Amino acid sequence: MLKADTGVKPARWQRGLDLLASLPDADWHRQQELDLRMALGRALFATKGYAAPAAGETLARARALAEQLDRSDCLGPLLYGQWLFHVNRLELKLALSFAERLERIGEAHDDDGLLLLGHLVHGISRMNLGDFVAARVLFERCHRLDDPAHRAVYAEIAMADPHHQMLKFLGSTLTWLGYIDQGRARLNQALKDARQHGHLYTLAFVLSYEGWFESATRSPQEIQRHAEEAVALSTEHDFPLMLAHGIVTRGWALTALEQAHEGLALITKGLSMNRATGAVVHHRCS
Q1: What pLDDT, on a 0 to 100 scale, did the predictor assign at position 10?
Q2: Which residues are CB-neighbours of 92 under 8 A, at least 6 positions away?
Q3: Contact predicate 197/165, CB 8 Å
Q4: Per-residue pLDDT tens for 134-146?
Q5: Distant-in-sequence, close-in-space partners of 149: CB < 8 Å, separation ≥ 6
Q6: pLDDT (tens digit per residue) in 1-53
Q7: How far apart are the C-alpha atoms of 265 and 29, rounded to whole Å?
Q8: What is d(CA 128, CA 81) in angstroms, rounded to the nearest whole number?
Q9: Which residues neighbour 115 within 8 Å (Cβ) at sequence distance 6 or greater?
Q10: d(CA 232, CA 171)
Q11: Pick from 4, 1, 2: which is nearest to 201 by CA?
């Protein structure tokens, strides 16, 4: 599947599907459709947001094709994509079911990389459901996400690097559990490693989530600087969901710095942009 930094737009993959629709149905036809839909789903995530209805429809069709064609090698990436879609639409129990199925596939196929990814998304699901103790346990089982062999596979599956996601969400979970210093250390490490990693979408992801999770660990001035960087990066590379998060974060920082009128206007704008992508999961955090 296509990496987020390549800049390819969904229209390319949609044109391929349109052309394919005019050809006779056959196994090779369905295989080509599966490959195109997997690439299209990823491109839609990058350019429209994780909760875009078109992305959800594309991934659901792709998973049905993978099951018809007995393409078990595609099920891991597709289950991850469907988890990402549903968790951002706040369909948390449904998202949890995809996370647990991803873990089961990793176990059944003795695939350590998929199992670790399953633990990560299971942890994020538990965190969003408010079960911070269970989330912490799951995140702390994920430290081998930075294994180079696993990361090569994840680059073809996940939009943002899973190791950096784990550090980010573990830091947030520790903070909410009251372990402020431990949480701050993980969050600082997530940002430092993301800069060194050099993957633009991952850096935008880490920067843009500052205001959602880190008001207890950072000063408003520091959060504002990170938010402005996230907004600039997301604007330049057309990451609409990360742009929305960055704008909300900047608004929160300005409000905390007693610039309430401008801050609230930015929060309102960012939440509207976030909802326009179909996402609602972080509205409760604001």
Answers
A1: 82
A2: 86, 125, 128, 129
A3: no
A4: 999 999 999 899 8
A5: 113
A6: 334 444 457 877 888 888 888 887 777 888 898 988 998 888 888 788 888 89
A7: 49
A8: 17
A9: 103, 106, 107
A10: 25
A11: 4
> How far, rounded to the nearest angstrom, does the alpha carbon of residue 194 sit from its chain's CA centroid?
14
The CATH class given to the 32-148 domain equals mainly alpha
Cα gap 86→60, rounded to integer Å: 11
Q: What is the pLDDT of residues 98-114, one digit of tens each?
A: 999 999 999 999 999 99
Domain map (residue ranges) of the chain: 32-148, 203-286
Q: Which two tokens stand for residue 198?
A: 């050099």
Closest by alpha carbon to 245, among 183, 168, 185, 176? 168
Q: Can you tell me the distance from the alpha carbon of 279 to that of 272, in angstroms, rounded to the nearest whole number?
A: 10
DSSP the chain: ---GGG---HHHHHHHHHHHHTSPP-HHHHHHHHHHHHHHHHHHHHHH-TT-HHHHHHHHHHHHHHHHTT-HHHHHHHHHHHHHHHHHTT-HHHHHHHHHHHHHHHHHTT-HHHHHHHHHHHHHHHHHTT-HHHHHHHHTT-GGGG-HHHHHHHTTT-SS-HHHHHHHHHHHHHHHTT-HHHHHHHHHHHHHHHHHH--HHHHHHHHHTHHHH-TTTS-HHHHHHHHHHHHHHHHHHT-HHHHHHHHHHHHHHHHHTT-HHHHHHHHHHHHHHHHHTT--TTGGG-
Provide the residue count of the chain. 286
Residues 6 or more apart whose CB falls under 8 angstroms from that of 143 comprise: 166
- Distance (Å, whole) CA 223 – CA 209: 10
